[in-house]
Amino acid sequence: MDFDDFHVPVLLKEVIDYLDPVKGDVVFDGTLGGAGHTVEIIKVIAPTGKVIGVDLNSQTLSTAARRLESFADNIFLVNDNFANIKDILLKLDIGRVSKILLDLGLSSFLIEKSGRGFSYLRDERLDMRFSPDTWPDAYEVINKYPEKRLKEIFLKYGEERFSGRIATNIMGYRKNRAIETTGDLVNIIKSSVPKYYGNYRKGHPAKRIFQAIRIEVNRELENISRVIDDGFEALEKGGRIVVISYHSLEDKLVKARFKDFEGICKCPPGLPVCRCGVEKRAKILTKRAVFSSEREQEKNPRSKSARLRAIEKIK
After folding, report:
1. What pLDDT score was predicted for residue 198?
2. pTM for this one?
């Protein structure tokens, strides 16, 4: 793996602006990837600042380590799930962090070169795990889950209109043989939806099903919720969290968690004094999600679906 296997850092200027790193900061980068954001952060916080660079994929971490060799004094590299932020900080004997960055996008390496079945455009074994040490994999989900559960996953995590039909056809296929590869699954999906469906949804007909399976396999939404909640508790006063998400489910979750921290009063209108007991602990820095510019989208098509939200801890 080399540096070209990673996507260009998305919304780089916006990340630096909203994260607002300063010299001496301790920054938790929960999605190190190719270290594109991290390199720019270290340039600002050095020489006394530190970045805790976390990635679940050991190959990714090794490649990032080579890129960060000249910043060795400013980086802790951790092979772990960002959801384990509490344990990570405890092991490093770090009590508080200044800033937290989460870029929830998949790296080009995982999609195109990992061989783990992340792409519906390649015929690979069904896997979709970010780390080979976790379970279940996509093969287990597709071949062992009951029809009702598959339908629920496709509907909840993929917002797929034809979830029931696709789940039923998967069960029918399984009666004769196992669904081994992404190619097998794509063919089942294509046979389950109208021919015009891909054009109607402005994308491949398998896109949402693959998203749903990946979220289930990696417990993505659960882990995002954990790292935001535990990360907020680990933030020092005035600290910030910046999250880049890439689909509506992620963005809705981030938006909801941030609103909870903001502590909007829930009392009926007209009450002279707040009685709901909601505590305002944070200030949302992005009234709406921040999107990439047309210029960035032209240079980096992956940035089209990216949306950034930021929050500052005040209490």
Report:
1. 59
2. 0.91
Q: Which of 233, 278, 284, 277 is nearest to 256 (CA)?
A: 284
3-109+221-313 under CATH 3.30.70.20, yes or no: no
Amino acid letter, residue 99: K
- Interstrand relation of 26-29 and 97-103 (parallel, antiparallel or unpaired): parallel
User: How many Å apart are CA 252 and CA 248, to the nearest integer?
Assistant: 6
Side-chain-facing half-sphere of 298: CA atoms under 13 Å? 3
How far apart, in Å, are the Cα atoms of 157 and each of 112, 215, 238?
22, 7, 34
> How far is 169 from 300, CA to CA, in rounded Å?
37
Closest Cα partner for 143 from 187, 197, 181, 194?
A: 181
3-19 pLDDT, tens per residue?
A: 454 558 999 999 999 99
Q: Mean pLDDT for each 10-residue chunk of the chain (315 residues)?
A: 63 98 98 95 98 93 93 97 98 98 86 86 95 93 98 97 98 97 97 76 86 97 98 98 97 96 80 77 97 95 95 96
CATH class of the region 115-218: mainly alpha
How far is C-alpha 59 from the geometric centre of its chain's CA atoms?
A: 18
Cα–Cα distances in angstroms (integers) from residue 283 to residues 87, 263, 307, 310, in the given order? 26, 9, 18, 9
- What Å distances lie between residue 297 and 96, 210, 291, CA to CA? 35, 24, 10
How far is 10 from 300, CA to CA, in rounded Å? 8
- Count of alpha carbons within 13 Å of 136, Cβ hemisphere only? 14
Spell out the domain ranges in the chain: 3-109+221-313, 115-218
